[in-house]
Amino acid sequence: MFRSIQATVMRPKALKLLSAAAGLAFAATGAIQSANAEDTIKVGVLHSLSGTMAISETTLKDTVLFMIDEQNKKGGVLGKKLEAVVVDPASNWPLFAEKARELISKDKVSVVFGCWTSVSRKSVLPVFKELNSILFYPVQYEGEESERNVFYTGAAPNQQAIPAVDYLMNDYKVKRWVLAGTDYVYPRTTNKILEAYLKSKGVPAEDIMINYTPFGHSDWQNIVAEIKKFGSAGKKTAVVSTINGDANVPFYKELGNQGIKATDIPVVAFSVGEEELAGIDTKPLIGHLAAWNYFESVKNSANTAFIKEWQTYTKNPKRTTNDPMEAHVIGFNMWVKAVERPAPPIHQP
Q1: How many domains does the chain have?
Q2: How far apart are CA 34 and CA 22, in angstroms?
Q3: Do the strands 267-269 and 135-137 form a parallel or antiparallel pair, or are they unpaired?
Q4: Is the same domain home to 56 and 100?
Q5: Does 114 lie in the same domain as 210?
């Protein structure tokens, strides 16, 4: 299995909640108005259930349904049951915007939990701004964006990518760097930040290799061969991976096919978790790394209880948990607290 990196700065919950506090009243207002008008409070679920990102996003759909089920057992919100409205944007980025508009305008949802890729988030953002609705986005993102209609509950590069690079520099003495990503907003922006950071640490340009591949890329033979050649220059080399979705499966298989072990060229991944690993033979991956805010292996009573409840809900004792799930749980509970918070008094002029 992968080894995990969990930097101490990766989950500053209190800071995240404080930074979101200004938007809580806004979040509550829309939901309360909807609750007063309907028998149920509708919750939108906007995750790809087909296409290249289904491997990652399907479990997030299940997570929202799980949280809704748990909340309804407690009596719902404001005395009303929550009702999930699930759509499938099918890993089609323009379709995300269409489905978001449908959820808000047609289905009259009070809030939406969804998206994985930054390109899908940027696709829906104009819709949420235009219709003044709320999106809870549960995945690490590239930063450089802050919108009042979006709650970002995942990590930014300074909370995930840079600590991971520091770990490789300090503990693995890495000198050469392969920045490998899927060709869209998050990997390109994160790698731009990482390239500048590496150069600020004295890494010369010739010791940084950058490569992008399309979503769903499956033929990794030549690229992995290039990585292997790049790592044969006598300097310790590592791959920093922002490869997303089902392309990870053939990527890691090809590493094994070409005999690249973690002791030779370690890979640290920002978008591979327990769910993606379920479809891979993990024997060749021993020693490779992942950097997230949360891992299923976290040892504490709250996590043990959460895993048990999740596996009971899914009726699968082997069903894993992962970081974006944890971010959805944080976002969902934040939304519930905002909705249930008493409205501030209205001061007449």
Answers
A1: 2
A2: 21
A3: unpaired
A4: yes
A5: no
Domain range spanning residue 254?
Answer: 161-291
Are 99 and 188 contained in the same domain?
Answer: no
- 76 in the same domain as 15: yes
The CA distance from 267 to 260, in Å, is 10
* pLDDT at residue 129, as a whole number: 97
pLDDT at 1 over 50: no
Backbone angles phi, psi at 191, to 5 degrees: -70, -30
Name the band, by pLDDT with cuts 50, 70 and 90, for residue 21: very low
Same domain, 151 and 193: no
The reply to whether 36 and 135 lie within a common domain is yes
- CATH number of the domain encompassing residue 327: 3.40.50.2300
Gap between the Cα atoms of 140 and 7, Å rounded = 14
Residue 253, in any domain of the structure: yes
Q: Looking at the structure, tell me whether residues 118 and 240 fall in a common domain.
A: no
The stretch 256-273 carries a mean pLDDT of 92
Position 237 in a domain: yes
pTM beyond 0.90, yes or no: no
Residue 348 lies in a domain: no
CB neighbours (10 Å) of residue 200?
8
- pLDDT one-digit tens code per residue, 68-112: 999 999 999 999 999 999 999 999 999 999 999 999 999 999 999
In DSSP terms, which residues pair with 269 in a beta bridge?
Answer: 241, 290
The verdict on 231 and 280 lying in the same domain is: yes
Q: How far apart are CA 14 and CA 162, in angstroms?
A: 21
As given in the structure block, the two tokens for residue 253 are 């298989």
CB 139 within 8 A of CB 324: yes
Q: Measured between alpha carbons, how far is 243 from 220 in angstroms, rounded to an integer?
A: 12
40 domain residue, yes or no: yes
Rounded alpha-carbon distances, angstroms, from residue 71 to 35, 51, 123, 166: 15, 30, 30, 40
Q: Report how far residue 329's alpha carbon sits from residue 64's, in angstroms, rounded to the nearest whole number.
A: 8
Residue with tokens 């997303």: 244
- In this structure, which long-range contacts are made by residues 76-82, counting pairs with CB atoms below 8 Å and at least 24 apart in sequence? 76/41, 77/31, 77/35, 77/41, 77/336, 77/339, 77/340, 78/32, 78/35, 78/41, 78/339, 78/340, 80/35, 80/38, 80/39, 80/40, 80/41, 81/39, 81/40, 81/41, 82/40, 82/41, 82/42, 82/43
